[in-house]
Amino acid sequence: MARSWRHQWRYQTAVLVVAVGTAALRPIKGYNGCFDKDGALLRQVDKNGRPLPDLFLHVAAGKPVFSQQRNELKNPLSYDTSKYGQYPKYLFHWTTKGKARKIAKSGHILASKKSDGDASLGEGVYMTAIPGWANQEVVRKNNYGGAMWNKFNRWNSANAYVRVDYEPLAERLGMDVKADWQSNFCIRVPRGELYLTRGIGAVACWDMTWDHKNKEWIEHNEYFDWEA
Question: 57 partner at 20 to 30 Å CA-CA among 28, 33, 42, 188?
Protein backbone atom coordinates (compact mmCIF):
# COMPACT_ATOMS: atom_id res chain seq x y z
CA MET A 1 0.00 0.00 0.00
CA ALA A 2 1.32 3.42 -0.89
CA ARG A 3 2.60 5.71 1.82
CA SER A 4 -0.09 8.29 0.98
CA TRP A 5 -2.82 5.76 1.80
CA ARG A 6 -1.47 5.37 5.32
CA HIS A 7 -1.34 9.13 5.74
CA GLN A 8 -4.89 9.48 4.44
CA TRP A 9 -6.10 6.81 6.88
CA ARG A 10 -4.39 8.55 9.78
CA TYR A 11 -6.15 11.75 8.74
CA GLN A 12 -9.44 9.89 8.50
CA THR A 13 -9.19 8.48 12.00
CA ALA A 14 -7.96 11.76 13.47
CA VAL A 15 -10.59 14.07 11.99
CA LEU A 16 -13.65 12.19 13.24
CA VAL A 17 -12.04 10.96 16.38
CA VAL A 18 -13.70 8.70 18.85
CA ALA A 19 -10.84 6.67 20.27
CA VAL A 20 -11.23 2.93 19.98
CA GLY A 21 -12.67 1.39 23.11
CA THR A 22 -13.52 4.65 24.85
CA ALA A 23 -17.29 4.03 24.92
CA ALA A 24 -19.75 1.24 24.29
CA LEU A 25 -21.43 1.37 20.91
CA ARG A 26 -25.09 2.21 20.93
CA PRO A 27 -27.63 -0.38 19.76
CA ILE A 28 -29.08 0.28 16.33
CA LYS A 29 -32.82 0.84 16.53
CA GLY A 30 -34.68 -1.70 14.42
CA TYR A 31 -31.72 -4.09 14.10
CA ASN A 32 -31.80 -7.49 15.85
CA GLY A 33 -29.17 -9.54 13.98
CA CYS A 34 -31.69 -12.20 12.85
CA PHE A 35 -31.74 -13.43 9.25
CA ASP A 36 -33.72 -16.03 7.35
CA LYS A 37 -32.12 -18.78 5.24
CA ASP A 38 -31.77 -16.36 2.31
CA GLY A 39 -30.00 -13.70 4.34
CA ALA A 40 -32.97 -11.32 4.68
CA LEU A 41 -33.48 -9.48 7.97
CA LEU A 42 -36.28 -10.72 10.22
CA ARG A 43 -37.38 -7.66 12.11
CA GLN A 44 -38.69 -7.62 15.66
CA VAL A 45 -39.33 -3.91 16.13
CA ASP A 46 -39.22 -0.93 13.80
CA LYS A 47 -36.81 1.99 14.13
CA ASN A 48 -39.24 3.66 16.55
CA GLY A 49 -39.42 0.60 18.81
CA ARG A 50 -42.89 -0.53 17.72
CA PRO A 51 -43.32 -4.34 17.66
CA LEU A 52 -43.30 -6.11 14.30
CA PRO A 53 -44.47 -9.69 13.62
CA ASP A 54 -41.76 -10.78 11.15
CA LEU A 55 -39.49 -12.73 13.47
CA PHE A 56 -42.26 -14.09 15.70
CA LEU A 57 -44.24 -15.50 12.75
CA HIS A 58 -41.07 -16.98 11.26
CA VAL A 59 -40.22 -18.77 14.50
CA ALA A 60 -43.84 -19.86 15.05
CA ALA A 61 -43.78 -21.51 11.63
CA GLY A 62 -40.77 -23.60 12.71
CA LYS A 63 -38.39 -21.95 10.25
CA PRO A 64 -34.69 -21.58 11.13
CA VAL A 65 -33.18 -18.22 12.05
CA PHE A 66 -29.52 -17.35 11.51
CA SER A 67 -27.01 -14.82 12.77
CA GLN A 68 -25.05 -12.63 10.36
CA GLN A 69 -22.24 -15.20 10.56
CA ARG A 70 -24.73 -17.88 9.44
CA ASN A 71 -24.93 -19.68 12.75
CA GLU A 72 -28.40 -21.07 13.45
CA LEU A 73 -29.84 -19.36 16.53
CA LYS A 74 -31.30 -21.47 19.33
CA ASN A 75 -33.17 -18.57 20.95
CA PRO A 76 -33.77 -16.01 18.19
CA LEU A 77 -36.51 -14.12 20.06
CA SER A 78 -33.98 -13.02 22.68
CA TYR A 79 -30.98 -12.58 20.37
CA ASP A 80 -31.56 -8.82 20.26
CA THR A 81 -30.18 -8.60 23.82
CA SER A 82 -26.80 -10.01 22.71
CA LYS A 83 -23.88 -8.01 21.35
CA TYR A 84 -24.44 -8.81 17.68
CA GLY A 85 -28.19 -8.61 18.11
CA GLN A 86 -27.73 -4.89 18.79
CA TYR A 87 -25.42 -4.05 15.91
CA PRO A 88 -23.76 -6.07 13.12
CA LYS A 89 -20.35 -7.67 13.28
CA TYR A 90 -19.67 -6.78 9.65
CA LEU A 91 -20.73 -4.28 7.02
CA PHE A 92 -20.69 -5.14 3.32
CA HIS A 93 -20.26 -2.95 0.27
CA TRP A 94 -21.78 -5.06 -2.52
CA THR A 95 -20.59 -4.35 -6.04
CA THR A 96 -19.50 -6.03 -9.28
CA LYS A 97 -16.36 -8.14 -9.66
CA GLY A 98 -14.72 -5.52 -11.85
CA LYS A 99 -15.42 -2.72 -9.39
CA ALA A 100 -14.24 -4.85 -6.45
CA ARG A 101 -10.88 -5.36 -8.20
CA LYS A 102 -10.59 -1.61 -8.80
CA ILE A 103 -11.37 -0.92 -5.14
CA ALA A 104 -8.75 -3.46 -4.06
CA LYS A 105 -6.16 -1.85 -6.32
CA SER A 106 -6.93 1.71 -5.19
CA GLY A 107 -7.29 0.86 -1.50
CA HIS A 108 -10.40 2.95 -0.97
CA ILE A 109 -14.13 3.23 -1.70
CA LEU A 110 -15.42 6.51 -3.09
CA ALA A 111 -18.38 8.16 -1.40
CA SER A 112 -21.72 8.33 -3.21
CA LYS A 113 -22.83 11.86 -4.03
CA LYS A 114 -26.28 13.37 -4.14
CA SER A 115 -25.64 14.33 -7.74
CA ASP A 116 -25.32 10.61 -8.57
CA GLY A 117 -28.96 10.10 -7.55
CA ASP A 118 -28.22 7.16 -5.22
CA ALA A 119 -27.48 8.84 -1.89
CA SER A 120 -30.78 8.58 -0.01
CA LEU A 121 -29.10 9.09 3.37
CA GLY A 122 -26.78 11.82 2.14
CA GLU A 123 -23.25 11.70 0.82
CA GLY A 124 -20.99 8.95 2.08
CA VAL A 125 -19.91 5.34 1.52
CA TYR A 126 -22.91 3.00 1.54
CA MET A 127 -22.79 -0.42 3.15
CA THR A 128 -25.26 -2.97 4.48
CA ALA A 129 -25.56 -5.63 7.18
CA ILE A 130 -26.92 -8.08 4.58
CA PRO A 131 -24.24 -10.82 4.78
CA GLY A 132 -21.88 -12.26 2.18
CA TRP A 133 -23.88 -15.50 2.02
CA ALA A 134 -27.20 -13.80 1.21
CA ASN A 135 -29.32 -14.66 -1.83
CA GLN A 136 -28.77 -12.24 -4.70
CA GLU A 137 -32.41 -11.18 -4.79
CA VAL A 138 -32.16 -10.19 -1.12
CA VAL A 139 -29.06 -8.09 -1.83
CA ARG A 140 -30.58 -6.32 -4.83
CA LYS A 141 -33.89 -5.62 -3.09
CA ASN A 142 -32.01 -4.17 -0.12
CA ASN A 143 -29.61 -2.07 -2.16
CA TYR A 144 -31.97 -0.74 -4.81
CA GLY A 145 -35.21 -0.59 -2.84
CA GLY A 146 -38.85 -1.52 -3.35
CA ALA A 147 -40.04 -2.14 -6.90
CA MET A 148 -36.94 -0.42 -8.26
CA TRP A 149 -34.76 -3.49 -7.71
CA ASN A 150 -36.22 -5.19 -10.81
CA LYS A 151 -34.43 -2.61 -12.93
CA PHE A 152 -31.23 -4.22 -11.67
CA ASN A 153 -32.43 -7.79 -12.13
CA ARG A 154 -29.06 -9.13 -13.15
CA TRP A 155 -27.41 -11.53 -10.76
CA ASN A 156 -23.96 -10.11 -11.58
CA SER A 157 -24.90 -6.56 -10.54
CA ALA A 158 -23.81 -7.49 -7.00
CA ASN A 159 -21.57 -10.54 -7.16
CA ALA A 160 -18.61 -9.24 -5.14
CA TYR A 161 -18.12 -7.26 -1.97
CA VAL A 162 -15.81 -5.40 0.34
CA ARG A 163 -16.34 -6.28 3.99
CA VAL A 164 -15.26 -4.27 7.03
CA ASP A 165 -15.64 -4.72 10.79
CA TYR A 166 -18.47 -2.58 12.14
CA GLU A 167 -17.02 -1.82 15.58
CA PRO A 168 -13.74 -0.05 14.66
CA LEU A 169 -15.53 1.78 11.86
CA ALA A 170 -18.36 3.00 14.10
CA GLU A 171 -15.86 4.04 16.76
CA ARG A 172 -13.94 6.18 14.28
CA LEU A 173 -16.45 7.56 11.81
CA GLY A 174 -19.95 8.97 11.89
CA MET A 175 -22.74 7.18 10.06
CA ASP A 176 -26.46 7.35 9.37
CA VAL A 177 -28.50 4.15 9.42
CA LYS A 178 -31.66 3.02 7.68
CA ALA A 179 -32.89 -0.07 9.53
CA ASP A 180 -36.51 -0.59 8.56
CA TRP A 181 -37.18 -3.09 5.78
CA GLN A 182 -33.78 -2.18 4.39
CA SER A 183 -30.37 -2.27 6.04
CA ASN A 184 -28.30 0.63 4.78
CA PHE A 185 -25.42 2.43 6.47
CA CYS A 186 -24.12 5.72 5.14
CA ILE A 187 -20.58 6.23 6.44
CA ARG A 188 -19.40 9.83 6.61
CA VAL A 189 -15.86 9.97 5.29
CA PRO A 190 -13.43 12.89 5.19
CA ARG A 191 -12.21 13.79 1.71
CA GLY A 192 -14.88 11.60 0.14
CA GLU A 193 -13.06 8.26 0.48
CA LEU A 194 -13.12 5.32 2.89
CA TYR A 195 -9.56 4.03 3.18
CA LEU A 196 -9.36 0.27 3.54
CA THR A 197 -6.89 -1.17 6.04
CA ARG A 198 -6.58 -4.16 8.33
CA GLY A 199 -7.34 -1.76 11.15
CA ILE A 200 -11.00 -1.95 10.13
CA GLY A 201 -10.75 -5.60 9.02
CA ALA A 202 -11.04 -4.71 5.34
CA VAL A 203 -11.54 -7.73 3.09
CA ALA A 204 -12.39 -7.87 -0.62
CA CYS A 205 -13.96 -10.85 -2.36
CA TRP A 206 -14.53 -11.11 -6.10
CA ASP A 207 -14.18 -14.82 -6.91
CA MET A 208 -17.76 -15.68 -5.92
CA THR A 209 -19.84 -17.95 -8.17
CA TRP A 210 -23.63 -17.99 -7.93
CA ASP A 211 -25.27 -21.42 -8.20
CA HIS A 212 -28.50 -20.57 -10.06
CA LYS A 213 -30.02 -24.01 -9.50
CA ASN A 214 -29.56 -24.14 -5.72
CA LYS A 215 -29.65 -20.35 -5.30
CA GLU A 216 -26.55 -20.11 -3.18
CA TRP A 217 -22.93 -19.05 -3.42
CA ILE A 218 -20.39 -21.71 -4.24
CA GLU A 219 -17.59 -21.68 -1.66
CA HIS A 220 -15.20 -18.82 -2.22
CA ASN A 221 -12.12 -17.22 -0.75
CA GLU A 222 -11.77 -13.74 0.67
CA TYR A 223 -8.85 -11.60 -0.36
CA PHE A 224 -7.23 -8.74 1.47
CA ASP A 225 -3.95 -6.99 0.89
CA TRP A 226 -4.18 -3.76 2.82
CA GLU A 227 -1.67 -2.74 5.45
CA ALA A 228 -2.67 -1.89 9.02
Answer: 28
d(Cα 168, Cα 13) in Å, to the nearest integer? 10
SS3 (DSSP) at 5: helix
Q: Is 102 helix (H, G, I), strand (E, B) or coil?
A: helix
Q: Report the alpha-carbon distance of residue 30 to residue 52 in Å, rounded.
A: 10
Q: What pTM value is reported for the model?
A: 0.83
Using CA atoms, how far residue 126 sits from 120, 122, 190, 198, 206, in Å, is: 10, 10, 14, 19, 18
The answer to whether the CB of 92 falls within 8 A of the CB of 129 is yes
Average pLDDT, the chain: 80
Question: How many Cβ atoms are within 10 Å of 190's Cβ, its own excluded?
Answer: 16
- Burial call 52-91: b when 16+ CB within 10 Å, e when fewer: bebbeebbeeeeebbbbeeeebeebeebbeeebbbbbbbb
CA distances from 170 to 18, 26, 98, 99 (A): 9, 10, 28, 24
Q: Which amino acid is at 70?
A: R
- What average pLDDT does this structure show over 202-206? 88
